[in-house]
Design a protein that fits this description.
Distance between the termini: 29 Å
Radius of gyration: 13 Å
Number of helices: 5
Strand content: 15-25%
Largest sheet: 5 strands, parallel
Number of domains: 1
CATH architecture: 3-Layer(aba) Sandwich
Strand order of the largest sheet: 2-1-3-4-5
CATH superfamily: Response regulator
Structural class: alpha/beta
CATH class: Alpha Beta
């Protein structure tokens, strides 16, 4: 039997984490929520998630810094970024580094699901 894909959710806003986790579970995936990039780096299990949904603007370590640290550590999996403060410079940087999607907040559940399904299927944007 195939293992249920695990989606890591990294966002400092508890409401966003809870909503995203509910959305992820509603489409049949397992959700693991982390309140910061450091929380993910310190607590994530040895097995990488199938995909990550991460906020860009977070205290201590930003989403794009988390992405850079993961790449440096040789950890490669699709990342969907979400931000309430979209920036073309950040979008270009994270997409060039391999991010799968860059979404504004709020984004519709359908848009998030589309990005997630494409990321898990290995499609490039």
């Amino acid at each position: 039997m195939a293992k249920t894909p695990v989606i890591a959710i990294v966002d400092d806003d508890e409401g966003v984490r809870t909503s995203l986790a509910s959305l992820v579970r509603s489409i049949g995936y397992e959700a693991q929520a982390y309140e910061s990039g450091m929380d993910f780096l310190q607590q994530a299990p040895a097995d990488d998630p199938a995909c990550m949904i991460a906020d860009v603007q977070m205290p201590i370590i930003s989403g794009d810094e988390l992405q850079a640290r993961l790449i440096t550590a040789g950890r490669h999996f699709p990342i969907i970024f979400m931000t309430a403060f979209p920036s073309e410079n950040v979008r270009q940087r994270v997409m060039a580094a391999g991010a799968h999607c860059y979404l504004g907040k709020p984004s519709s559940g359908d848009e998030i699901i589309r990005c997630l399904e494409e990321a898990l299927a290995g499609h490039t944007p």
